[in-house]
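Troubleshooting: if your tokenizer reports a length mismatch, compare your output against this known-good record of 201 residues.
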Amino acid sequence: MDVKVLGEKLKTLRLKKGFSQDELAESAGVSLRTVQRFENAETIPRGDTVKRLFQIFGMSPDEVLDWSQTEDKGFLLGMNLSGLIFLVFPLLGVVLPLVLWISRKDKIAGVSELGRKLVNFQLTWTLLYYVGVTVYGWSYKYFMLGGNGDISPSSVEGVVWFRMGMVLTIYVIVSVMIAWNTYRINKELSVKYFPKINFLK
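Known-good structure output:
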């Protein structure tokens, strides 16, 4: 929480509405000293104190939180590109963005939205990848061990090509979407990941 930014916003709102510090303190049910220390960024206010002070001006907790976040396009770009680790180890393509999202979602503007969309997208395609690999394994075993023991080279070759095609398709989709959203972040546009299943709301 950026205490200095919140303190400046509180003071601006107070003066705009014509409140004295004493009047604001009385309306919010806090001490005058609390208001003074908050506006001068001398202390880190408790969450309920922040809520009570800003509610006087009709501000929601989400609006207040937006004020306390800093802008950091570099972090957003890095977080988005972290999804490319999927190409090395698919599960890490979910874990790394998830860790970055959780660690900065309340501190940097845009991280909450990006994190939710990126993790849902990565999780969707990671599950598809592992389902596809499992189906490939079953198919390969069926053609190698099934029937009367005769192995049809064309059948085995078809299964191998299926796996290669599946993996390549998934890698291309993930790479293209990450590259496209890197461009969108750089242009300060909202991110759009699809297709995906919204596991996390």
